[in-house]
Amino acid sequence: MIDDDLVGRELGSTTFPVERSKLAELARAFQETDTAWWDEQAARRAGFDGIPVPPTVTTLADHWRSGGAIAAAIEIGADLARVLHGEAAWEYFAPIECGDELTGRARISGVSQREGKRGGTMTFVEIATDFTNQSGELVARRRDTLIERGA
User: Fold this and answer.
1) Domain that holds residue 36
2) Is 41 strand, coil or helix?
3) Can you tell me the distance from the alpha carbon of 21 to that of 60, in angstroms, rounded to the nearest whole number?
4) DSSP type of residue 55
5) Position 135 confidence tier, pLDDT thresholds 50, 70, 90
6) What is the CATH number of the domain that holds 101?
7) Which residues contact 20 (CB under 8 A, 6 or more apart)?
8) How confident is the model at residue 118 (pLDDT cuts 50, 70, 90)?
9) How far from 139 is each of 7, 68, 93, CA to CA, in Å?
10) What pLDDT digit, counting tens, does each position of 25-66 carry?
11) Closest CA to 53 of 150, 143, 144, 139
């Protein structure tokens, strides 16, 4: 059962490298064909100081986390058959660069409920993940909202 007692609960941490090959995979996922997204020389010719890092780079943490993208839902006891990913939002505090090593520390920052339009109570769980770089500097915060649909 998901309830308010979960607010503040730590969900662990994940450390991962911001590698050129992963940045290329992200660019291709966005159907980006400009080689500046994976070639250092092309990036410099395009006016970048190095390979640009897309704003959604923190999603890579989901591939490094034990249990993958659904790990948090499992850990909070959500019924996976009724869970949806509601939204993701980012806040940036410092640049993230190719070659950085990021550590994401996740915690539950909010739980709320409301009646669904089709009946049943929906539970919304906000997970805030703070990302620091190899120097311990806070570079980004990602907020994900999981929704457990009513039965």
Assistant:
1) 20-52
2) helix
3) 12
4) T
5) very high
6) 3.10.129.10
7) 38, 40, 51, 98
8) confident
9) 23, 22, 5
10) 888 888 988 888 888 888 889 888 888 888 889 988 887 777
11) 139
